[in-house]
Structure formats: structure tokens, C-alpha cells
Design brief:
Arc Repressor Mutant, subunit A; single chain; two-stranded antiparallel sheet; 7 strands; 6 helices; alpha+beta; 13% strand
């Protein structure tokens, strides 16, 4: 009698799984193992280095009036914070650069140089009446505008119309000569001080408690 042999089931071979090497717990994890960030990070706000329209208006108004508060109001800033706003604007680098550039352009356009100031003062200080008045026999008349030399027109302060014709008012020659003299150090302003009743001023020396008057005499005990 044949006996049935039970077929032995073949044992399944164990699966070999390759494991990735464990990363160190310290240090920065690798980029491919980081969890994806669903929301991208917002970049920090960086203030623009370019001057905006309101700041440009502030610079233009400041060069025109040289009053920071007034310039801020004219540029559109509130009156309540005009002074503080103007103070902060003048400390800003981009405003400083724009202000320096506009000031140089203004000086170049109007030629506000030392040489020109001296030329204008010279026109006033050495103005000659013959450039403005024409003698006709025993009478005289004010010259027409075309007859006045161009360099002499700089000394004219005002043209005054009248019933007998146009009158010319010139700037002060004395003031112009005074300013030219100060520029060339021809004289120095001095102030004289005196004691009571016009006497000498007493000077007290702390070392010996002596009072010395302007003549050099000393009064001990005073």
C-alpha cells in the first residue's frame, strides 16, 4: 500500500531590505529629507534706496525756502508732524544725496559763487551817476534803459514812475563798500568796555585777592 508523502512546502526566502544609513542627530538635516513648507516665507521688507515723489518735492521746497517744516508741509506731509518728519527726512541718506545734487544744480544755474557776489557788490559800490543821467546843457534827464550800460544795471534797486518821467533808485553804496572792506580785512569791528562812570575795569586775581584796575595799580584788601 502506497503511502502518500506530504509535500513539504518550500520555505520562503527572507527578503533583504537595504536600509539607508542613519543620519546623525546633530547638525543640519539634508535638504531632501526636509519637510516641504506649504507656505513660502515672506522676504523681509527692504526700504527702497530710491527717492519717492513726495521726498523729491520736499527736497525742491527745502532748497527754495530753507525751512524744513515749511518744506514738509508744502510737500504734502501733515502740519502736526511736519517738524519731526522733516527732521527724519534730512537724516535719510537718499534725501541727503538728492539735496546735495539739487543744491549744486541750483548754485550752478544761478552762479552763486564768491566771485559773482564780489562782482555784484563792486557794481553797487562803484556805481557812477553818469551811467544813469545824461546832461543836456543846463538840464539833465534820466537815461533810457537801452542807454544804461549792462554792468551798471546791477546797482539799480528800483524804477519809480513819476509825472515828470522815470526815476531810478540805486542800492546803498556805503553798505556795499563796508562789505567789500570787511571781505578784504581793511578794518575790524572793535568794542570798548569800561567800568562804572567810565573808569577802568577792576580785575580780581584769585591768588592774592588783589584788584588790579586798568592803569596797573593794585588795591590790596578789596
Amino acid at each position: 500500500m502506497a503511502t502518500a508523502k506530504k509535500k513539504k512546502k518550500a520555505k520562503a526566502k527572507p527578503r533583504t531590505v537595504k536600509r539607508r544609513p542613519r543620519l546623525a542627530t546633530t547638525g543640519t538635516p539634508r535638504a531632501h529629507l526636509r519637510e516641504p513648507n506649504p507656505k513660502p516665507r515672506k522676504s523681509p521688507k527692504v526700504r527702497s534706496s530710491r527717492i519717492n515723489e513726495r521726498e523729491r518735492r520736499f527736497v525742491a521746497e527745502y532748497v527754495a525756502c530753507w525751512d524744513a517744516g515749511t518744506a514738509a508741509i508744502r510737500a504734502g506731509y501733515t502740519k502736526k508732524s511736519a517738524q519731526s518728519t522733516a527732521y527724519n527726512l534730512l537724516k535719510t541718506t537718499r534725501v541727503k544725496v538728492a539735496l546735495d545734487r539739487m543744491q549744486k544744480e541750483y548754485e550752478k544755474r544761478v552762479d552763486c559763487s564768491k566771485e559773482r557776489i564780489l562782482r555784484e557788490l563792486t557794481k553797487i559800490a562803484f556805481a557812477d551817476l553818469s551811467d544813469y543821467i545824461a546832461m543836456e546843457g543846463k538840464t539833465y534827464r534820466v537815461r533810457n534803459w537801452d542807454e544804461i550800460p549792462p554792468f551798471a544795471r546791477g546797482a539799480i534797486q528800483e524804477l519809480i514812475p513819476g509825472s515828470s518821467g522815470m526815476r531810478i533808485k540805486l542800492h546803498s553804496k556805503d553798505r556795499a563798500l563796508e562789505l567789500l572792506g570787511k571781505f578784504h580785512a581793511m578794518w575790524v569791528d572793535r568794542a570798548e568796555h569800561s567800568g562804572p562812570d567810565g573808569g577802568a575795569i577792576k580785575v580780581y586775581i584769585p591768588s592774592n585777592d588783589r584788584a588790579v584796575n586798568g592803569s596797573g595799580d593794585g588795591d590790596a584788601g578789596q
